[in-house]
Please model this.
Amino acid sequence: MRHRNPVRFLAPLALVAVVVGVFAVVQAARRDSPNGGSPTATVKTTPHRRQARRRARARTYVVRSGDNLTIISERTGVPLETLQQLNPDVSAQSLSVGQKLRLTQ
Model:
């Protein structure tokens, strides 16, 4: 019987190492993805706690490009009617970027 070359055992070991490496990379990517690697996206229906606290503390809102009173109401959690009562001099057509709106009394 002929003596087998030990290099013949390295090829299967290298293949196993490559498979383990690819598996580790895929698992790490799934852990770091925003939806946890799940194939279906989930929709959040409640605001994050930090956002809710920030909303509760905010007393003014600075108008950004593309804002209107409805969008501001949704972002801040302040009803549209309340926004209009707290800011009687502001009309929906005259919002300008950088303008401050009152959110609380």
Notes: Residues 10-32 form the longest helix (23 residues). The chain has a mean pLDDT of 79.
